[in-house]
Write a structure and sequence with these properties.
The chain has 243 residues and is mostly helical. The protein has two domains: 119 residues, no CATH class; 107 residues, no CATH class. The chain is built from ten helices and no strands. It starts with 15 loop residues before the first helix and ends with a helix.
Amino acid sequence: MAKVPGDAPSGFHTTRWSLIRASGESPADRRNALEWLCRTYWQPLYRHVRMRGVGHEDALDATQGFFVRLLAGEPFGRAAEDRGRFRSWLLGAMNHYLADLRDHATAQKRGGGSVPIPLEELARHDAAWEPPSGALTPDREFDRNWAMAVMEKSMEQLAEEYAKRGAGEQYRVLSPFLAGRPDPAAYAAVAEVTGTTANSVAVAVKRLRERFRERVRTAVRETVGSEEELEDEMALLFAALRG
């Protein structure tokens, strides 16, 4: 059985996207890798459907039906998985699926297939979400939501990492410095609360931000197939966050 990568894969032949694309791997390995990626990035897909004017319940139905067909190994038109990035392939596959639903005027409801992704639970906090009224197209909004999902997942993993080594309180205090450019003037205030020095806080923040960047790169690495694609995808991720 092929090895699914851990936190810091050294190459691209064992990433989850590579497992999905590799025809020689076992169906179980491919399905497990695809399930992990779908579970991680379901929200950008769900919101993409909402951006196309679909209501909450129908968007859940469409996303669930898409996952059922995806995990069953059903192809989606020209959305081939033998090239490109997982993000682009996934969006193309969803667009083909939505077109198919429109063409046939049918929708596969939740429960119509077995898929181990509890969308109702995952999307509960998204029930009140409404598409923004900005000028972004559905595809560009998908990129933005994808970038946000990568950042949120990376922050969750970083918080777990700090908690496991008994530094959960340190993460809680320092995590606000992950957003935007650190304000050195704020280091003194944190130092006073924590009983350290401003310099110690600055060093801890620098390490936290470096580790966060590593987490983000690891998350993106799982969805591309080469170092060049990784750099391009990282650039797109930060551009999408800037809007």
